[in-house]
Structure formats: structure tokens, C-alpha cells
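Bench log. Compound arrived from synthesis this morning; before running ITC I wanted a structural hypothesis for how SN-glycerol-3-phosphate sits in the protein. Inputs:
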Amino acid sequence: MKFFLDTAEIDEIREMAATGLVDGVTTNPSLILKSGRDYFEVTKEICDLIDGPVSAEVAATDYDGMLREAAHIYDIADNIALKVPLTVDGLRACKHFNDQGKMVNVTLCFSSAQALLAAKAGATFISPFVGRHDDVGFDGMQLIEDIRLIYDNYQFATQILVASTRHPIHIVESARIGADVVTLPAKVLRQMFNHPLTANGLAAFVSDWEKTGQTIAK
Ligand code: G3P
């Protein structure tokens, strides 16, 4: 399963990319605002830092506007995946760029009916928002399970990119279901390393080793 970082913070991306476990990055207008950076500058910097797909979102909500913006966004780098909303115009733009062999990430997906439309429009990635789904009392992981079933029924090439993840269980459940990608905040990726028994066990090993008075490498 691929891990994308859900952030536009360069320091976080640099820190987590150093683990060798980051396969891409996703941004959105809220993350760009939070970074306080210029859209094109920060997206270019991210594309230089990460080899994998970097999702950059259109601001326009109409088809013609999306096409105009996309010309500038795809120009940023070869590893750009254009992010479009799951609307009629968004899926028209998705089909337009898929026909050109370009990467498209369809975002703001909240139903398997929507995900089916995005697969038929040839989306490279579909981004169902599990955390926001949970926030309104629906089971976000059930949505992922339904989409996985539908996509496997028809061998759709669209990759399921689980978004709006909030904790390590969202990641583990996505892996159990067989999602292709998860996008996660750096905080959640850091949490995944942690287990109290690992920390306790290592502390005991370090202290026992010190008692041996030996060294392995000078
Ligand atoms: O990037 C899309 C998505 O991951 C946003 O998540 O945390 O704002 O619900 P969140």
C-alpha cells in the first residue's frame, strides 16, 4: 500500500520523506492556506522533494476554468496529479485529462455511487474522505469496503486513495480492505511507529546491554 503525506508543510515532508516510506503527497486549498506559501512555489518545492505523485487542486469549479488552471498546474512538474472535485464539471475535466494520459485525483468523494462515476471517467485516484464521513456519523471504512468491491467487480484501474485519515486504525483498516493508497497527516505516520511495548522493550535492551560493558563497534 502506498503512503502519501497529506500536507503542504515542506519541513514535515522533508522529515517524513527521510524515513523512505513516503510515496507521494496530497495538498488541497486548506493545506495551501495553512502553509502560508505561494501555490506554485510550494507545489514546485514539493515536486522536487518527492518522486511520486503530488496532488495539486484546482480552485475553479467550472469546466472551462478547470481546463485553464490545469494548463498551469501540469506545467509545474511531471509528477503532478491534478486534483478535481467530484462534480459534473470535475468529472468532465477528469475524462478530458485522462484521455490525454495525465494523472487525475478526484477528491471530495463521499459515496460509492460517486466513486463509480469517477472510475468510469478514468480517474487515476479516487479520494474518499473517511474522517469527514465518520464526523457525520457514517462509517468511513464501510465506504472504502464498498468501493473496493465495486472496483474489483469490474477491474477498474482507478486507485482507491483513502483520504481525511485521522488515526492509525484508519490506515490499518484501509490495508485490511486492500486500499491502494492512503494519504495521512505526518502526525498519524509518526503515531504508526509507536508502541509502548516496543519503547519499554528497547529501553530494557539498552540498559541490559550497557551492563555487559561490551561494544559492538568502536
Ligand atoms: O486532502 C484531503 C483530505 O485528506 C483532507 O482531510 O483532515 O481535512 O478532513 P481533512
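What the model suggests: DSSP finds eleven helices and eight strands in the chain. The pocket of SN-glycerol-3-phosphate is lined by residues 6, 26, 28, 129, 131-132, 163-164, 183 (CB under 6 Å).
ITC booked for Thursday regardless.
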